[in-house]
């Protein structure tokens, strides 16, 4: 009933089930016991009808008491069986969700460049929840159906094999219907899940960019785009529902009614000749229910199974993604000085167009260099390859004369401090955002904040360093968020400082404070800065002008102005704009 690819996904899901084999075994045992009890109940009813219906004596009352007692016992055992299956389900989903999140954390920037954030969120939340439905509901009902079907069929054969054979003739039609449903529904369900992922992506994008959307009056356009995706999702969801309604429960219920009709006709024509009692007739009617009802439930849940398999496949795609950040050797090299050298480094994102073309430069401990250039000239790409977000294709990058690949990831992250143009703050407190969950004392946090002049505004807050920080730090100004990012960097005491347009979004009034903090941070550290405002890098030891991935000019601020080249034109343009 499932194709080859789905079978592979199902087997992989079962490997997670093995982790909880004892709890699963207990749940299965309880389900089996429930099945046996369900099969015994019609036999007791049949015996009562044939032998005690005409005389309600003491044995008859004891039999009735046992009959209803079995119902109560069945309910209790079934409750615990379902409870244990639910526990197994939640543990498995927790494991799968953790594996997906853990692998996502290891992926390189290239994966996130091409994959919408909403799509990733959808896989780790919605799709894993769909897998939970399979384990908690479908798998238990499927196993229960197998138990009930097997035990019921065996009991029916013992009662009367000829009647049982008539009922069995209906089974091939059930399997034909289910297989036809599977073939028609797979593509519809895949499209439905894909559109749900698109809805999440559009929603995530709209929330993150709400300021721009409102500023440019794009609300109506976004509403229309969202509604287009939403409406298409409804179309495919309705198609899935139509297939469910046509092939699943209604068709199965019709087959059960036909089975009743065949049974009644058989008993009407042959019952008296074969000496079939009323109790046996009652038992067969009950067993037809027990034979068809689990099959109806399984087929009714088959659409959920298909959804779960598609969802599991999407989650496993994320778990199997191997576009990791560049690999580092687990060597014993340590960064002592922080001297940096790029030697003929070339880099391309797609393997076709060179973003960095034969880049070479050096910067010593305590020196500051800066990169300037137009958009797309390769400034940020230098940071990306140096931070090991991407692997460069040619040349060498050295730190203290050692190839950057020969340092452990931990050594690089510990000694390279990165300050981005858009500072990112997490939910938590000011203190936790500066610590970044590193082993830094409260005194160290305060010292870092004081060093970058962030303590001036922190001390004025109601709760000081324990002041709550909302998502992305929306309650703080851009300048305040940037100072907190500086404090976070200083607290880790890096030997190398990377500034990726750290003052680009700062207002003129705050810029003086931020610039003073930067000057203190740079002292004694090797600093690479990407600059948008040329006025912020005039004191750099060397300024490199990039164009189409190549260094076309280099020198100090005064030297570059004297050349009257690209840097001179850029500086004159900015100066003219500022004067105007």
From TrEMBL:
<feature type="domain" description="ABC transmembrane type-1">
    <location>
        <begin position="25"/>
        <end position="307"/>
    </location>
</feature>
<dbReference type="InterPro" id="IPR011527">
    <property type="entry name" value="ABC1_TM_dom"/>
</dbReference>
<keyword id="KW-0472">Membrane</keyword>
<feature type="transmembrane region" description="Helical">
    <location>
        <begin position="257"/>
        <end position="285"/>
    </location>
</feature>
<dbReference type="GO" id="GO:0016887">
    <property type="term" value="F:ATP hydrolysis activity"/>
</dbReference>
<feature type="transmembrane region" description="Helical">
    <location>
        <begin position="62"/>
        <end position="85"/>
    </location>
</feature>
<keyword id="KW-1133">Transmembrane helix</keyword>
<feature type="domain" description="ABC transporter">
    <location>
        <begin position="340"/>
        <end position="573"/>
    </location>
</feature>
<keyword id="KW-0812">Transmembrane</keyword>
<dbReference type="Pfam" id="PF00664">
    <property type="entry name" value="ABC_membrane"/>
</dbReference>
<keyword id="KW-0813">Transport</keyword>
<dbReference type="InterPro" id="IPR027417">
    <property type="entry name" value="P-loop_NTPase"/>
</dbReference>
<dbReference type="InterPro" id="IPR036640">
    <property type="entry name" value="ABC1_TM_sf"/>
</dbReference>
<dbReference type="InterPro" id="IPR003593">
    <property type="entry name" value="AAA+_ATPase"/>
</dbReference>
<protein>
    <submittedName>
        <fullName>Multidrug resistance-like ATP-binding protein mdlB</fullName>
        <ecNumber>3.6.3.-</ecNumber>
        <ecNumber>3.6.3.44</ecNumber>
    </submittedName>
</protein>
<feature type="transmembrane region" description="Helical">
    <location>
        <begin position="163"/>
        <end position="181"/>
    </location>
</feature>
<dbReference type="GO" id="GO:0015421">
    <property type="term" value="F:ABC-type oligopeptide transporter activity"/>
</dbReference>
<keyword id="KW-0547">Nucleotide-binding</keyword>
<dbReference type="InterPro" id="IPR039421">
    <property type="entry name" value="Type_1_exporter"/>
</dbReference>
<dbReference type="Pfam" id="PF00005">
    <property type="entry name" value="ABC_tran"/>
</dbReference>
<dbReference type="GO" id="GO:0005886">
    <property type="term" value="C:plasma membrane"/>
</dbReference>
<dbReference type="GO" id="GO:0005524">
    <property type="term" value="F:ATP binding"/>
</dbReference>
<keyword id="KW-0067">ATP-binding</keyword>
<keyword id="KW-0378">Hydrolase</keyword>
<feature type="transmembrane region" description="Helical">
    <location>
        <begin position="138"/>
        <end position="157"/>
    </location>
</feature>
<dbReference type="InterPro" id="IPR003439">
    <property type="entry name" value="ABC_transporter-like_ATP-bd"/>
</dbReference>
């Amino acid at each position: 009933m499932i194709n080859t690819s789905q079978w592979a996904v199902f087997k992989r899901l079962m490997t997670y089930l093995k982790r909880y084999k004892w709890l699963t075994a207990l749940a299965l045992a309880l389900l089996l016991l429930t099945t046996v009890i369900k099969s015994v109940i019609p036999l007791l009813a049949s015996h009562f009808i044939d032998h005690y219906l005409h005389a309600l004596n003491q044995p008859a009352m004891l039999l009735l008491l046992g009959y209803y007692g079995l119902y109560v016992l069945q309910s209790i055992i079934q409750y615990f069986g379902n409870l244990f299956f639910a526990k197994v389900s939640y543990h498995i989903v927790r494991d799968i969700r953790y594996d997906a999140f853990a692998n996502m954390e290891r992926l390189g920037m290239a994966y996130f460049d091409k994959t919408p954030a909403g799509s990733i969120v959808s896989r780790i939340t919605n799709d894993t929840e769909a897998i939970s439905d399979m384990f908690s509901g479908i798998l238990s009902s499927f196993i229960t159906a197998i138990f009930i079907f097997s035990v019921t069929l065996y009991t029916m054969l013992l009662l009367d094999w000829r009647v049982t054979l008539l009922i069995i003739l209906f089974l091939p039609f059930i399997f034909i219907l289910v297989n036809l449903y599977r073939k028609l529904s797979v593509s519809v369900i895949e499209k439905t899940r894909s559109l749900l992922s698109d809805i999440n992506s559009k929603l995530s994008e709209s929330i993150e960019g709400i300021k721009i959307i409102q500023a440019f009056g794009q609300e109506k356009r976004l509403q229309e785009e969202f509604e287009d995706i939403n409406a298409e999702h409804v179309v495919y969801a309705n198609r899935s529902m139509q297939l469910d309604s046509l092939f699943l429960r209604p068709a199965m219920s019709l087959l059960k009614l036909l089975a009743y009709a065949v049974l009644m006709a058989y008993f009407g024509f042959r019952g008296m000749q074969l000496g079939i009692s009323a109790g046996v007739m009652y038992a067969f009617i009950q067993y037809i229910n027990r034979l068809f009802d689990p099959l109806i439930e399984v087929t009714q849940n088959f659409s959920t199974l298909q959804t779960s398999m598609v969802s599991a496949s999407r989650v496993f795609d994320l778990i199997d993604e191997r576009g990791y950040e560049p690999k580092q050797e687990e060597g014993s090299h340590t960064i002592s000085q922080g001297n940096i050298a790029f030697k003929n480094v070339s880099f391309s994102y797609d393997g076709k167009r060179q973003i960095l073309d034969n880049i070479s430069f050096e910067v010593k401990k305590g020196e500051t260099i800066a990169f300037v250039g137009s958009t797309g000239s390769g400034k940020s790409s230098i940071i990306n390859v140096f931070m090991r977000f991407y692997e460069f294709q040619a040349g060498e990058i050295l730190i203290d004369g050692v190839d950057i690949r020969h340092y452990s990831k931990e050594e690089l992250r510990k000694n390279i401090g990165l300050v981005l143009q858009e500072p990112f703050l997490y939910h938590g407190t000011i203190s936790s955002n500066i610590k970044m969950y590193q082993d830094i004392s409260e005194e160290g946090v305060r010292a870092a904040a004081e060093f970058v002049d962030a303590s001036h505004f922190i001390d004025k807050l109601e709760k000081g360093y324990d002041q709550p920080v909302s998502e992305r730090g929306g309650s703080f100004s851009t300048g305040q968020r940037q100072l907190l990012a500086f404090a976070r960097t200083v607290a880790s005491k890096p030997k190398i400082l990377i500034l990726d347009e750290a003052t680009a979004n700062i207002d003129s009034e705050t810029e003086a404070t931020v610039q003073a903090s930067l000057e203190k941070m740079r002292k004694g550290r090797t600093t690479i800065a990407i600059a948008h405002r040329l006025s912020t890098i005039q004191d750099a030891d060397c300024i490199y002008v990039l164009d189409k991935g190549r260094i076309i000019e280099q020198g100090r601020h005064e030297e570059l102005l004297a050349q009257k080249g690209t840097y001179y034109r850029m500086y004159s343009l900015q100066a003219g704009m500022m004067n105007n």
